[in-house]
Amino acid sequence: MQVVIQKTLLTHSGNRSIPEIVSIGDNAVLVSSSEGKIGVFYQREYRFMLFFKRTKRYFLGYLDPDITLLISPAIKAAIRMRVRIVDRLPAHMSELGKETVCVSVWAEGDQWDRLTKKLREQKFKAATPTEVEQQVQSAPTPTPNGLGTVDDLFSSLTSDQKI
Fold it and tell me: pLDDT band at residue 132, thresholds of 50, 70 and 90?
């Protein structure tokens, strides 16, 4: 397993509290929604008389949009991932004033490496050599001090900012 995200804070919408049974070190499950968000759920199995098993899921929160962009290709490719709860703070101890949960995400090393390599190749194939040359030629030439001329700075101001 390879670390994809060492620790990230979940964004929790709503007034639902996180169940008391959730603790550090527990496993969680990633679920992709139709809105493009990735939700994190705590999954608990209940057994009755060793034969009957019932699974219940508790919603913990959503991953940040930046992290969603990183992980969504892995979910679509069905890469085996492991999600663990690494930090939990109750509302009275949190700076945000509400319960917070942090998770870490791990992926199968070989599968993750192949996916990232494939995505990099697709990104480079999208830009043709002529497009790259045009971008380089149209880029402004840097000045020795890196700040540009006074006229450049003044022209970048809006009419409200000008004196």
Answer: low
pTM above 0.85, yes or no: no
> How many whole angstroms separate alpha carbon 32 and alpha carbon 6?
20
Give the per-residue pLDDT at 129: 55
State both tokens at 97: 């004033």
Beta strand 2-9 with 100-107 is antiparallel
Helices 109-126 and 65-76, interaxial angle, to 10°?
A: 110
DSSP helix/strand/coil, 129: helix
Q: What is the DSSP letter of 142?
A: P
The mean pLDDT of 121-129, rounded to a whole number, is 60
Report which secondary-structure segment, H or E, holds 6: strand 2-9
Bigger pLDDT: 149 vs 82: 82
Q: Report how far residue 28's alpha carbon sits from residue 63's, in angstroms, rounded to the nearest whole number.
A: 12
Neighbours of 60 (CB within 10 A): 24
Which H or E run contains 52?
strand 52-62
Structural domains in the chain, sorted by start: 2-124 (3.30.70.2330)
What the block records as the tokens of 112 is: 């993750």
Mean pLDDT of the chain: 74
